[in-house]
Records
---
Amino acid sequence: MNVINILLNIILVCIFGQLATISHEFGHAIPALVFTKDTVKITLGDNTTKTKEINFSKLCIQIGRFQPFLGFVDSNRSKLTKWQRIFTSAGGPIISLVIGVSLIFISGIINYNLLKKLISFSAYYHILQFICTALPIIYPKWWLGYGGYPSDGYNIMSNIKGI
C-alpha cells in the first residue's frame, strides 16, 4: 500500500508541476504577444531532443522530452521597452501567485476532503513556484535545467537597474 501511495504522489507532483509550469510560462508569453508583433515561443520540457511544435498565429508551443518543472519563453526582447521587459518577466511569477492564492481560497470552501487536499497541494505548489522564480538569483548548477540562468526576479531587478 505504501508503494502505491508513493507512486500516486509522484504522479500528482508531475501533473501539478506541469500545469503550474504551463500557466507560469503563459504568464510570460501573453504580455510578450501583446507588446510585440514577433513570434513568441513557449518551450515545455527538455528541448535538446526531438520536439513537437504547435503553432497558434504568433504563438509557438514547443514540447520536448517530459520534464514537468522545466519551461522557457523566447521572444524578441530587444524590441521591448524597459517597462515592457519588466512586465513580461513579472508575468510568470504574478500568474503563479494569483493562481496559488485563488486556489487557497477555493480549497477553503471545498467540503470533499480529497479534492480539498489536491487543490491545497496545487495552491502551495504555485506559491512555491512564485517564491522560487521571484527571488532575484542566478539558479545554482544543480537546479533542474535552470542551472546558471537568472530567475525572473533577477531579470526584473536587472531591468530596473538598467543592466
---
Amino acid sequence: MSSAFTSHLPPFEGLLPKWLLLVSVISVANSIQAYSTLSYTQRVYSSVIAPSPPSGGLSRTLKQPSASSPETSSPVTPLSARTFGTWTFLSSIIRLYAAYHINDPLIYQLALWTYAIAWGHFMSEWWIFGTARWGAGLAGPVFVSTGSLAWMWLQKDFYVHS
C-alpha cells in the first residue's frame, strides 16, 4: 500500500478500526443510493403478498415468504428510503469516529450500539413485522451487524482501557 493511502487509515493496531472505516464508507454510499433510488432498499424490505381471500375480497396482506407464493412486494416508499438513508448516514458517522477514536470508551459504546440497533431492526423486520425476507438484500446487513456486534463485544478490552 502506498503511504499516501495508509496515512488516511486509522492509526491503531488490529483490524477492527479498519473494518469500522470500511463499513462507514460503504454505509455512506448506501445512504446516497437510498436517496437516489428505491431499488436497493426494496431488496432488503420485501415481503410476499398473500393471495386475496377466496370470498373475492380485495384485501391483500403481507406475510413471510414460502415456496408456494413467489409474488413479492415492498413496503418501501420514497420517504421511508430517505429516512433509512438518514439513519444509515448517522450510523456511519458514529462508526467513522469510532474507527479513529477506538480507545475512547464512549465512542466505542456508541458504535457498538449502532450495530445492536441495526441488528434489532433488521431481525424484527424479518421475524416480527414480516417486511423483510431472507435473501441477498437482507443477508448483507444481518451479517455485517451480527459480525461487527460480536467482534466489538469480544475486542472491547483490547481497545478500551478503563
---
Amino acid sequence: MKLSELKKGKKAIIETVGGKGALRRRLLDLGLTPNTEVRVRKVAPFGDPIEIFLRGYELSIRKDEAAVVTVREVN
C-alpha cells in the first residue's frame, strides 16, 4: 500500500521509496528510508497534506509525495 493511503493513527514500515531525482533525494533526506516505522498523526480537512511521525519528529508532506512511498501496515 502507499503511504498516502494509510489511515490516521495507523502504523507502517516503509518498504520502498519511489520517485525520481530531487523528489526521491528529498524524501530520503527527510528520513523516509526503508525499514523505518511511520505513523499518520493528522490529515488536513481536505486530505492534503498529511502529518506523519517518524524517527522522533513530525513531518508534513503532500499526498502526492506520500504516494511514491510504499509501506507495509503493522499493528
---
Amino acid sequence: MNLNIDPKALGKTAVLMGGSSAEREVSLTMSGPGVLAALRSQGVDAHGFDPSERGLHELKSEGFARCFVALHGRHGEDGTVQGALELLGIPYTGSGVMASSIAMDKIMTKRLWRADGLSTPRWLSLKKTELQRERVIKVPDELGLPLFVKPPHEGSSIGISKVNGYSEMQAAVEAAAKYDDEVLCEEFIAGPELTCPVLGEGASAFALPVIQIEADQGNYDYQNKYFTNSTRYLMGHLDAALEREIQALTVAAYRSLGCRGWGRADLMLRKSDGKPFLLEMNTSPGMTSHSLVPKSAGHAGITYEQLCLWLLSQARLDAGRA
C-alpha cells in the first residue's frame, strides 16, 4: 500500500455527500464533511457536492477530475451514481456498478456467497404479496427464534427488527416492508458481532484488523452506530489464527462480489463453535468519527487523512479510462 501520493496530481475532486437515501443525514453531516476536511488537509482541491441538490452533469461542466463517493444507501451505494459517473467518464472511489448493485442487495449477496461456499446465516425472503399473517407466522418454524427481519436494500440498521417470539413477526415484517418491496428474514447467530474492512482489488486485496463491537444491551442500532459514545470497539484481542480465518473469509467475500477500492464486511462469530458467518458487505462504508474502517485502519497505523487520500488515489472507472 503506497501512501506516497501527490495530492496535486489527483486534480479537482468532488466529495459526493448527502443524496436522497434514508442515510442522507449521516452522509451529509458526518461522512462527507469528514472526508472533505481530510482531503483538504492533505492539499487536495476538494469540494462538497450533493447530488440531491445539483445535477451530476455539473461535475463535468465544472471540471471535476474525480469523485470520492461518501454517499450511503440507495442512489449512492447501489450502483446508480456509479453508472452515471461511468457515462460522464469521471473516475470514482469504491466498487463499480455491478459490485455496488449486488452488495446493496443483501439477498443477492447471500446467494452469491452461498454459491461460492462462504458461510452466511440461513435466510428466506418474503415478497410484499407474501406478508399475510398465515405466511409470516410460519417463518420462525423455518429459521428458529430469535431471528432478524430486515429490508434487504437499506443500511445503518434502518428498518431492522430482532424477533424474539411469534407475536412480534407481523410488526417486524411490516416495519421492514416500509423501506423495501421484499423482506429478508435471517437466522440469528448467537455470539459477538464483528466487522472487517478490506482495501484494494482482486489478488492484491487485503484485510485490515478485525473489530469486535460491544454495544449497549447488545444492540448496535442506528443510534449506537452514530450518536453514542458507549459502544466499545475491540481490536487485537482475538486468537491470531481466528483473526486470520475471519480476514480470509472477508477477503473471499469481497472478491466474490467483485468489489474494489474498499469495503467492510459485517459478521457474527457463533459462540458455540467459533465459526464466523457473513452478514453483508458495505461498499461505501461510513467515514464518521465513530466509523469502523478508520478505527481499523488506525490500528494498522494508517491515519484517517492517509486513508482518505489513498482511497481517492484509487478512483477509477469500470471502463478503465481513469
